[in-house]
Every structure is written in structure tokens, then in C-alpha cells.
Amino acid sequence: MKKKVLAVLLAVSMVAALSGCGANQAATAVEGAADQAAEAVEESVEEVTDAVEEAVDEVGEDFGTGEIKVWVADAVVDFTNAKIAEFMEANPQYAGYTVTVEPVGEGDAAGNMITDVQGGADIYAFAQDQIARLVSAGALEEVAPENEAAVKSENDPGSVSAATVGGVLYAYPLTSDNGYFLYYDKSVVTDPSSLEKILADCEAAGKNFYMEINSGWYQTAFFFATGCKLEYETDDQGNFTAANVTYASPEGVVALKKMIELNGSKAFQNGSAAGEATNVAAIVDGTWDSSTVKDLFGDNYACAKLPTFEGADGKSYQMSGFGGFKLLGVKPQEDDNKLAVCDALAAYLASGDVQLARYNEVGWGPSNLAAQGSADVKADEALAALGQQLAYTIPQGQYPGEYWELATALGDSVRNGEISANSSDDDLMATLQSFQDTCVGYAK
Fold first, then answer.
1. pLDDT category, 233, cuts 50, 70, 90?
2. Residues of the chain with pLDDT > 90: what percent?
3. 330 and 240 in one domain?
4. 207, 188 Cβ separation under 8 angstroms
5. Do 346 and 266 belong together in one domain?
6. Integer distance in angstroms from the first to the last C-alpha of the chain?
7. Alpha-carbon distance 298 to 316, whole Å?
8. pLDDT value at residue 35
9. 408, 213 Cβ separation under 8 angstroms
10. Residue 347: other Cβ atoms inside 10 A
11. Fewest beta carbons less than 10 Å away: which of 89, 111, 334, 419?
């Protein structure tokens, strides 16, 4: 810069020397000196600007200050706190933010957020079936553009689809383990591939078969097995626009008859929490209860995909059901700096390394493809069984909240004998028609 200033002074002195040569020459010289001076100043300003930008890059962008609230399940609060501490240490540019982790489970987070978006968490884990409600309530920010490509390429397709509404990615996948399969006591159950044989073994041993049929999640194992449809379409705001439901069909009657038959077995026990099961030899449940089931069965602990069943039409059907995922969402923010910090933290908590560490800590099955390929995950019996079962399941889409209550009522009508083995096919079809019409009505 000093050299450029010196050049300008030299040009001026030249003007002074030429002033005696005539007005025209002096004017020309002044104009040239002025041009040189302007160029020198412009280049100097550019140098100063570049130097300032380099200094800012070295110091790091100032993201301001604030507080960030995170909701995760109680089982991973300590783990999440530890990972956040690692993240903040590695990113000093976010030092102005205080992050607080609170224990709010995936099943409760969506309801709490919808009730009070402003008072809810800035980052929160939730079950994928709640994403449409959250988008509609304005409780989810789109995934940051700089993170979108990585999320889509590094996670399995089912989890990415679960995090998407109307073609827009709204959340970071956390797990691909929210499905169900069969746990069994191998000293009692001799053939886990057949529902009829499992029930026969349980009845002969005086043991129970544990499954929840008055649940909209578990009872789809029968209806999806026979080919029934239960699907909803949503717009980009998460509103339900159309429904494709085919429960009122011969296939639906076959599924409902099997539920009635299962309910009539002396070995059947209704429920979904392994810790509440009694005298059991077979349990339909998910990976979240693997440690509980291991304690129940001890050395006889075994896992398998769900069995097949024989329908009233004489055909064999592979039990199906929903596959589900845990997702991590970011709430819209008024402060762009805070939003950037929230996005960066959410992307880190959902990254492959953290997913694998989370699996090793609490056993949550990763959605990240690299983490799924690790030796530890591949050796997990429960996750292996779930992986086999997911080949026969339907990725859980978006469903109205009222559907779950309606499905419970359908299962209760089986449990309390309102419909039974004595019911005619016409009566069963009428029950299913009412169920179907109500489901379709939720999308109008």
C-alpha cells in the first residue's frame, strides 16, 4: 500500500513539473495522475477488505448468543448431553449459546410442540408418524440446504422418505428401528415361522403369546399381510388430501378373522410392553425392549421375523405391519443465527458417528448406512430380525391422529367379543366398511 501511495505522490510531482509546459499538457497530466490515484486507492481498499475477511475467517463468524432447548427420550439424555459438549468444544464459534437437554419422549414431543410451538423445544426427537401434524402446525423448519444432500445420501431410503412431506425434507433421520418382530423362548417354540405352530407350542407348555391387537400399529400386521391398503396423501403443508383404504374387502375379512382366532387362543395375552408380559414364550415387540426380553428368556432368548399364518381362505400369509423411524426436528426461528446453530447441532446429533455411538450406548438401530454396516450392528440379533421383517412391512406414512383411536376401537370390538368367531361374514364386512368409511372421511 505504501508503494501505491508513493506512486500517487510521484504522479503529482510530475504534474507540477509539467505545469510550465502549457495548460493543455498540465490538464492532461492532472487527469492521468487522478486516474492513477483512483486506481491506487481502489486497489488499497480491496487489499484492506481481503485482509479483514481473512481475519474474520480465522476468528470465526459471530453467531451471537442465546439458549437452545433440546428434547430427547429419557434413556438418551446423558448421552445427548455428552455429545453436545463434544460438539460445542469442536465449534467455539457457537460458544455464545447455552444448550439444555430435557427428557421428553418421542411419543409426547409432537403433542407438546403442537400445543405450544413457541414454548416448545428448538430441537426435538419425534416418531415419524407425527411429522404431518408438526409441519401443519408450523413446528418444523426445512432441513438446511447445506445439509440436505448428505442426509439423503447417508441414510437408508425408508428413513429419508419418513422425514419428507410433500417432497420437502423436514427432519434428520435418527433410527431405522421402529418396527416389530418376534422374540421367542427357543426351549418352548420349536418353529417360529408359523403362527399356528407357535400358538400350539405355547398352549402345550402353558405359556403365553403376547401381542397387542387393539393398536393401530400392531394390527396392521394382519391387514397388510392379506394385501389391504391404508394410505394417506398429504400436501406440502401436511394436510391430508386423499386416502386409499381397502379394509372392507374379502382380504380384510380374512385378516379380521385371524385376529379373532388369535384372541380366542388360551395362550393369547394382549399387550405391547415386554415388561408387563407374564408367563410368556413369544412376544411381538420392538428393539427398544430387547434387554427386557433377554432377561425374561435368558439363555433361551431368540429372535425372528414375524411368522406366517393360515387364512380362512386356505392361503398362507406373511405377517406384515408398519416400519417406523425416529426423527430429529428443528423448530423455525426468528433469529437466523440461532437457526444456523440449531441446524448444525441437529446434523451432528444425527450423523453416522453419533448414531453408531448411540447404538453402542443404548441400542438404538441406526438409519445411517455406514453405521448399519458396522460389525456390532450386524451382530445384533434383534436388529437382524427386524431387518428381515422390514422386507415385508410398509414404511409408515402420515396418519391422522383420529386413526389410532379408531383402530383401538376395532381391536376392542374383537377383545370384548362384540365381533367373534360366531359373527357372519356380512357382519364382519359391515364392521370393516364402517371403519373404512371413517378413515376415508379423515382426508375430506
1. confident
2. 72
3. no
4. yes
5. no
6. 71
7. 32
8. 58
9. no
10. 20
11. 334
Instruction: List, as one string, the DSSP characters of 32-52.
Output: HHHHHHHHHHHHHHHHHHHHH
- Total domains in the chain come to 3
Closest by Cα among 173, 170, 166, 168 to 233: 166
Condensed to tens digits (0 to 9), the pLDDT of residues 189-223 reads 999 999 999 999 999 999 999 999 999 999 999 99
Q: DSSP 3-state assignment of 240?
A: strand
Instruction: Evaluate whether residue 394 is within a structural domain.
Output: no
* Domain housing 8: 2-54
93 inside domain = yes
The residue to which cell 436388529 is assigned? 383
pLDDT digits (tens, 9 = 90+) for 3-44: 444 443 334 444 444 444 444 544 454 455 445 544 654 555
pLDDT value of position 140 = 98
DSSP 186: T
Cell 400350539, residue located: 200
Beta bridge partners of 185: 301
Residue 107 pLDDT grade (very low, low, confident, very high; cuts 50, 70, 90) = confident
Residue 30 in domain: yes
pLDDT of residue 58 exceeding 60, the answer is no
Residues 6+ apart with CB under 8 A from 430: none
CATH of the domain at 346: 3.40.190.10
Distance CA 368, CA 372 (A): 6
Q: Are 305 and 392 in contact (CB under 8 A)?
A: yes
State pTM to two decimals.
Answer: 0.68
Residue located via cell numbers 418382530: 181
